[in-house]
C-alpha cells in the first residue's frame, strides 16, 4: 500500500509546496541509503561509464 505524503500545509507558491514534498521524501529515503548500497551503485555507474568509453551500446533493464 502506498503511503500518502503528509504535507497538508498552505503554501504561497507551487514551488514551495513541491519543496516541502521533496524534503519529506528525503526524510523517508535517507535512512535506506547504506554504505553497501552506495558501493553497489558506484560500481554499476563505473561499469556503465567504462562501457560507454569503449563505445558499447547500453543494455536497458540491467
Automatic annotation (TrEMBL):
Superkingdom of source: Eukaryota
The name this protein goes by in its record: Uncharacterized protein
Taxon lineage: Eukaryota, Sar, Stramenopiles, Oomycota, Peronosporomycetes
Species of origin: Phytophthora megakarya
